[in-house]
Specification:
The protein has 753 residues and is an alpha+beta fold. It has 24 helices and 13 strands. It has helices at residues 2-9, 31-44, 64-86, 103-165, 172-175, 178-183, 203-213, 250-262, 274-330, 353-366, 395-404, 415-429, 433-448, 450-453, 460-467, 469-486, 538-571, 575-606, 612-621, 636-655, 657-669, 681-685, 701-725, 727-752; strands at residues 22-30, 48-49, 191-199, 219-224, 229-230, 237-238, 240-248, 266-267, 334-335, 341-349, 374-378, 502-504, 517-519. Strand 9 and strand 10 (341-349) form a beta hairpin. The longest helix is centred in the first third of the chain and has 63 residues, at 103-165. The radius of gyration is 42 Å and the shape is extended.
Length: 753
């Protein structure tokens, strides 16, 4: 045991195994070099500032006006981006790289561009509205003029009949209907009409409302406009309908106009004289032509302005984001008593102290400051933040782990093991070396174009694929490996590593591959024998293989996690965690599921027909009963009883000792200390809020016990549920294999025979 401990202690330190060692530092920065210092530190990215103004609201901080200005500039840049996308233009993929301008200059440029764009948009909107009105007027003149001409011709024929028969009778003038009186040539001023245009979707309701409002005393004619017109509110092309309403009386006219206004119908005056209609139509067409020319010129001018903005948009957005981040960070710093320096505290990795000092010296030199930045290390009481140094290969794995939870300071980093376990567990489900080759080729394309794609703006999906390109690389390689084990190439088996170990008993079964197979040589050297494919026992065999393999992988994975907790406890010199967490957890997990894994391996090695379901169920229900034909080795029954007792003992072992021992240690440590340290001006009055000096929290036994109880229950339930969850490897692997088979047989074979 001592040799093992010495061996572990002598192991070289792993950079990726644990988070970087951090130190608390204090910076005293002169005001004239503060902005440049923070900007350079942000580009370095190795210092995390602490907020020394946490008690202040965002509006009480020193640089709140600069933050507001940056927010306003961000709004303008978003406005430019929206305008570029609405215009159908693309911002430059390779933006123009120019030296950074001052914030004030950029603010003036953005204000000028915004004013110019708003003015162009306003003028364009007015011209577009005028153009739409003229276009609607032209359509109304064409359609409504046709209504009026046909009505006039029809009225001329009826006029002759009425003048010959009825109008000669003076008595009829008193008894004739209103419409007939209006149609008399002597008095035609009473019959009126209103023409206009309305959305096609509102035409039916519009007609019904007019009929009800006038009590049926109107004639409604309509016709489709024949072309789509832009709606000024939604800026979408809509279908419209031209209408002509014939009515009589000023009261009816008022009602109809109000209904038109309520339904959003546009009314246009159409003269009854055909010559006037033609003259107005010519004028409208002439104005439309002029407006089209003006609109096209305005759009070209606007697109030119947006294109020039698009060349610089990426650089401007980056600059504004950087400036806002700098001022947000400056707001976390405090002024000293002289108001000439800013004081800041932050965490940095130990290895980065020299780089930070070099950057601060460069910032002092570039800002022509007479006084340099003071950088010194402080003592810290609280736990430092966790910082893992990553590269292009490990970054994707670290992000996956951090999505579930960030390890405590100096804890073992699970991302190191995730580099192998994550892509391999995917490959267990995706095992097909044909599919793996396809995935590998796509990944190699991303890696080969890495330098070019890293500078381009990708979509959300492509950006996710590009960020995980090395993850996909290992996933594809492991998929090829597992596909060779499963012997599946797009669900088709191949004799890659030699011939099958089985042959037909006679010639009658050579075509069926379903019965009569006998083993005549050594087992297939690597992976699944191709003769299993198509046999009657294919599905039961592969089910059993993949299910047992999933359990073995799951138990091994969970044991790895518990082993990491041992190394964490050893690193932090916590013997309590080793004795009362690591040991009972290992005993509980391996007494049940480790024993199940042992039975699987023994069954594979011996070829036994024992039912492992029966063995595990009756291990709990009837541990003393005889196993009979399910016995795999001598002494199995007493071993099961011992393992079951160990598992039962491990639960209270995890739950009770640690909280009571912690309580005892705390009472012994503070026994007799019923007084506290007196506050002095040297110690307490100089302590700034949120500084490194913090008071030690008192021991709360109930809180510790509840936490330990939750941890113990979670482990016991998690051991069962996680083992069942690893069966998803089997389920998804089976689903992938069956879907590949269906695709091959029902699509490829039917298509190409």
């Amino acid at each position: 045991m001592e040799r093992m401990e010495k061996f572990i202690d002598n192991l070289p330190p792993m950079d990726l195994m644990r988070s970087e060692k951090m130190t608390l530092v204090q910076l005293i920065i002169p005001v004239e070099s503060a902005h440049r210092s923070i900007s350079y530190l942000g580009e370095l990215g190795l210092l995390q500032f602490r907020d020394l103004n946490a008690e202040k609201s965002p509006f009480q901080r020193t640089f709140v006006n600069q933050v507001k200005r940056c927010g306003e500039m961000s709004r303008k840049l978003r406005f430019f981006k929206d305008q570029i996308s609405k215009a159908g233009l693309l911002s430059s993929i390779h933006p123009v790289v120019e030296p950074d301008v001052e914030l004030e200059e950029l603010e003036i440029q953005l204000a000028e561009h915004e004013h110019e764009l708003l003015e162009m948009n306003s003028n364009s909107e007015k011209l577009r509205q005028t153009y739409n009105e003229l276009l609607e007027f032209k359509i109304v003149l064409q359609k409504a003029g046709g209504f009026l001409v046909s009505s006039h011709n029809h009225a001329v024929v009826e006029e002759r009949e009425l003048s010959e028969n009825v109008y000669s009778n003076d008595v009829y003038a008193e008894t004739s209907s209103l419409l007939e009186q209006e149609m008399r040539p002597a008095d035609q001023t009473g019959l009126r009409f209103i023409s206009g245009i309305i959305c096609k979707s509102k035409a039916l309701r519009f007609e019904r409302m007019l009929f009800r409002a006038t009590r049926g005393n109107m004639l409604f004619n309509w016709a489709p406009a024949g072309e789509e017109i832009m709606d000024p509110l939604s800026a979408e092309m809509v279908e419209k309908t031209v209408f002509v309403v014939l009515f009589s009386g000023e009261q009816a006219r008022t009602k109809i106009l109000k209904i038109c206004e309520a339904f959003g119908a546009n009314c246009y005056p159409v003269p009854e004289d055909i010559n006037k209609q033609r003259q107005i139509t010519r004028e409208v067409l002439s104005r439309l032509s002029e407006l089209e020319t003006t609109l096209d010129a305005g759009i070209r001018h606007r697109n030119k302005a947006l294109t020039s903005i698009g060349y610089h948009l990426t650089q401007w957005m980056s600059m504004v984001r950087r400036e806002k981040a700098v001022y947000d960070t400056l707001n976390m710093l405090n002024f000293d008593v002289t108001k000439k320096c800013l004081v800041g505290e932050g965490w940095c990795p130990v290895f980065a102290k020299a780089q930070i000092q070099e950057v601060l010296q460069r910032a002092t030199f570039d800002s022509n400051s007479q006084v340099g930045v003071i950088f010194h290390v402080m003592d810290a009481v609280e736990s430092p933040p966790t910082y893992f140094k990553t590269n292009q290969f490990t970054n994707a794995y670290q992000e996956i782990v951090d999505a579930y939870g960030v390890a405590r300071y100096q804890e073992a980093n699970p991302a190191v093991y995730t580099v192998i376990t994550f892509p391999f567990l995917f490959a267990v489900m995706f095992g097909d070396w044909g599919h793996g080759i396809c995935l590998l080729l796509g990944t190699l394309v991303l890696i080969a174009r890495e330098s070019r794609l890293s500078t381009q703006k990708l979509g959300s999906f492509m950006e996710m694929l590009f960020g995980g390109r090395y993850l996909l690389l290992l996933m594809s390689i492991f998929s090829i490996y597992c596909g060779l084990i499963y012997n599946e190439f797009f669900s088709v088996p191949f004799h890659i590593f030699g011939g099958s170990a089985y042959k037909c008993r006679d010639a009658t079964c050579r075509d069926a591959h379903s019965a009569g197979l006998i083993k005549f040589r050594d087992p297939y050297p690597f992976g699944v024998d191709p003769s299993w494919r198509g046999s009657r026992s294919e599905l039961p065999f592969l089910n059993s293989l993949k299910m047992k393999m999933s359990i073995l992988l799951g138990v091994g994975h969970m044991n790895l996690g518990i082993m990491l907790s041992y190394f964490n406890a050893r690193f932090f010199r916590s013997s309590l965690d080793i004795r009362y967490q690591f040991v009972p957890q290992m005993i509980f997990l391996n007494s049940l599921f480790g024993y199940l894994s042992l039975l699987i391996i023994i069954k594979w090695c011996t070829g036994s027909q024992a039912d492992l379901y029966h063995v595990m169920i009756y291990m709990f229900l009837s541990p003393t009963d005889d196993l009979g034909e399910n016995e795999l080795f001598w002494g199995q029954r007493p071993l099961q009883i011992v393992l079951l007792l160990l598992a039962l003992v491990a639960v209270p072992w995890m739950l009770f000792p640690k909280p009571f021992i912690l309580k005892k240690l705390h009472s012994e440590r503070f026994q007799g200390r019923t007084y506290g340290m007196l506050g002095t001006s040297e110690f307490d009055l100089d302590v700034e809020p949120d500084s490194a000096r913090q008071h030690h929290e008192e021991f709360n036994f109930s809180e510790v016990f509840v936490h330990q109880m939750i941890h113990s229950i979670e482990f016991v339930l998690g051991a069962v549920s996680n083992t069942a969850s690893y069966l998803r490897l089997w389920a998804l692997s089976l689903a992938h294999s069956e879907l590949s088979t269906v695709f091959y047989e029902k699509v490829l074979l039917l298509a190409w025979g």
